[in-house]
Specification:
About 60% of the residues lie in helices and about 0% in strands. By secondary structure, it is mainly α. The protein folds into two domains: about 120 residues, no CATH class; about 70 residues. α8 crosses α10. The chain is elongated. The C terminus is likely disordered.
Length: about 240
């Protein structure tokens, strides 16, 4: 029995973005599609956490494919890997061999080709500078999970996505608080303000305008509190370099 296709973006039961082959028009930033228009925190994501999110999407998709083929497509499963999902390389060559030129499970071909792209992304990572790049890649794992009808792993995917959002919201609050404190101190007692990698990365994006340049004219505006904190962070770094 063929699996049902992913939910329609118009379905009230599904909060997911539309299938990647059907981009939303007019353009909406992926963070807006995920969480609605108030996405000030989306600028405050952590690169490492976002990469781990895409790795989770890949792991879940690989596990789901292994189990699905074992039950529904034994020959596909035998040619793919009998030992463990960890042995699935998820390359196009492997998929073409395992499906005998896509003659087995042809309904999965679009999802598997997208999943192959996710595999390339997690195998050769580089900093993206914006949440949308990670979100779009992770969605390729979600697309496969939906094609396979693996509800349990879809829920795990959503939990990972929610955790990324929660961390970004927390980082936003921390930067907002630190920025206000820096302005109050006016450059004095800098050692009392603690900045870690997450804070400085966001401040760097804000100061350089990297995310805004890469998304123009479709950008998410930076919250004034983040711009203010980034300006204070930049000024204090200048003070430290002059000492």
């Amino acid at each position: 029995m063929s699996p049902e296709p992913p939910d329609s973006p118009d379905s009230p039961e599904s909060p997911e973005p539309p299938p990647l082959s059907e981009p939303a028009l007019p353009f909406q930033h992926p963070a807006v599609i995920y969480y609605g228009p108030r996405v000030w925190w989306a600028f405050c994501f952590d690169e490492m956490a976002a990469l781990e999110y895409t790795q989770t999407a890949f792991r879940l998709g690989r596990e789901a494919l292994w189990e699905y083929t074992r039950i529904h497509h034994p020959e596909f499963h035998r040619r793919l890997s009998k030992a463990s999902p960890l042995f699935i390389r998820a390359s196009q060559t492997e998929f073409e061999y395992s499906t005998i030129g896509w003659s087995l499970a042809p309904e999965l071909k679009p999802a598997l080709l997208k999943f192959k792209d996710l595999r390339n992304f997690v195998s050769h990572p580089c900093e993206q500078g914006e949440l949308s790049s990670y979100a779009e890649e992770a969605d390729k794992g979600l697309y496969l999970l939906k094609m396979l009808g693996d509800e349990a792993r879809i829920q795990q995917f959503r939990a990972a996505r929610d955790a990324l959002r929660t961390q970004a919201e927390q980082t936003f609050t921390e930067i907002q608080d630190r920025g206000a404190l820096l302005y109050d101190l006016q450059g004095d007692y800098v050692e009392d303000v603690s900045w870690d990698r997450r804070h400085t990365a966001v401040s760097w994006r804000s100061v350089t305008g990297r995310a805004r340049r890469s998304l123009e004219p479709k950008s998410i505006p930076i919250h004034p509190a983040i711009s203010r904190a980034a300006e204070a962070w930049q000024n204090l770094n200048s003070i430290e370099r002059e000492k």
